[in-house]
Amino acid sequence: PGMRNAPMDALGRALGRVAPPWPVQLILLDAAQDPVVDFIAERVRPFYTA
Length: 50
Hints:
This protein is an all-alpha fold. Helices cover 50% and strands 0% of the residues.
């Protein structure tokens, strides 16, 4: 359970320290054999690439 909560806890700490000036809308998905991830990867254009 600790490892499962670690990413959400880190995200909460990051957003709690410095709030961005825009609304944050996130979708956190597990990419291993997930039909929703497949759909998004095939049909949604990335809005940001590093």
